[in-house]
Amino acid sequence: MTAAYDCDVLVIGGGIIGLSTAYALTRAAPGTSVVVLEKESGPARHQTGRNSGVIHSGIYYRPGSLKARFAVRGAAEMVKFCAEYGIAHEVTGKLIVATGSEELPRLHALVQRGRENGIPVRELGPAQIAEYEPLVRGVAAIHVGTTGVCDFGAVAAQLAEVAGASGAEVHYGEKVQAIDRRPWGVAVRTSSGGPSAEGRGRIVRARMLVNTAGLHCDEVARLAGDEPGMRIVPFRGEYYELERPELVRGLVYPVPDPAFPFLGVHLTRGIEGGVHVGPNAVPALAREGYGWSTVRPRELAATLSWPGSWRIARRHWRYGAGELHRSLSKRAFTEAVRRLLPMVTEDDLRPAAAGVRAQAVLRDGTLADDFLIQETHRTVHILNAPSPAATASLPIGREVARRALAQLAQLART
């Protein structure tokens, strides 16, 4: 060994997936030393903490896919975790509503998919819709009983606390600048921390690296010397809040178009009692571009130079134009909401905080739909963690931990 190790496993990224991985490592292999590096001043500052807080049932996902398996298992585990640690949560159920007859085949396909995934689904007619949501209008709907809501930011903070109590170290304000992968292990240099003897900032040495950097995961993979075969193309989801939250009792979704990885504008009563409306999905001009005014030329150039970005644009320009129109026109956004909730007016909607989704796009323009995990020597990269990643974070963390520990065991034998 040419260097003393600071830890066995170094996790880059302090969102819910990275912290769940640290939590799983401390439980699966007590005594394994774990360090988490997060560039922000606290956990869950991006995707984890900027969503509608829905505990997804798994009804949308292809049977047998990682998303389906992890979501169904993760939803139950998330409810149990929240109950155990006193985190605010509620199993509310949700409606998926068809507003026109042309949507009925897709709604019926969702019923079948839900049943294949082991999810309780109840089919509803217009009168039964009114029993759940008196002001929502539709020709048919399904009720999914296992959907809920919680505070994923609080979950992430609890994961950090519990992992820390078991020996993991979580360091905030540590942005990764360079990664040096050697035969003996991995060395990571950060932009903060005490200066090293070389005067280049803090160095952390580990046997294994786990990349859960979310919006920056492809950049971290390339820093490690791996070509991920994809790029993160950021999409901003813009939300409003209802001024009259009493218009909606729970969670109301449209029937999604399976050609796109977005669920469309929906209404979500959060754990605090307010109702989020949205999101739409528009290209962000920075990986952390939560508004049109946030532009980072280097990141935007990276998006535009990736061939897959242009192939997406050519393939889905009509859909994208509609999303852009709803972003720039409150009236258009309101009309999208009125398909589900006719009583809504523009005055009922006030702007709320936006989120950015880290969408992995392949070179051919394919939008990666499932979780994408890449293993290379001494590294595990999480390259796509789409919704329902927060819901499924506990089983995902176990899967990532399993892979990391398997590599450690193999390295110990060689």
Descriptive notes:
With 414 residues, this protein is of the alpha+beta class. It has a domain at 1-90 and 148-229 and 366-414: FAD/NAD(P)-binding domain (3-Layer(bba) Sandwich). The protein has helices at residues 16-28, 66-85, 104-116, 126-132, 152-165, 217-223, 297-305, 307-328, 330-338, 393-413; strands spanning 7-12, 34-38, 54-55, 89-91, 94-98, 121-124, 140-144, 148-150, 169-172, 176-182, 185-190, 203-211, 230-242, 251-254, 266-269, 275-283, 349-351, 355-362, 372-376, 379-384. The strands form three sheets. Strands 5, 6, 7, 13, 14, 15, 16, 17 and 18 form a nine-stranded mixed sheet that branches. Helix 1 (16-28) packs parallel to helix 5 (152-165). The chain is globular. The relative contact order is 0.19. The model is unreliable at 194-199 (pLDDT under 50).
Brief rundown of the structure:
The chain has helices at residues 16-28, 66-85, 104-116, 126-132, 152-165, 217-223, 297-305, 307-328, 330-338, 393-413; strands spanning 7-12, 34-38, 54-55, 89-91, 94-98, 121-124, 140-144, 148-150, 169-172, 176-182, 185-190, 203-211, 230-242, 251-254, 266-269, 275-283, 349-351, 355-362, 372-376, 379-384. With 414 residues, it is an alpha+beta fold.
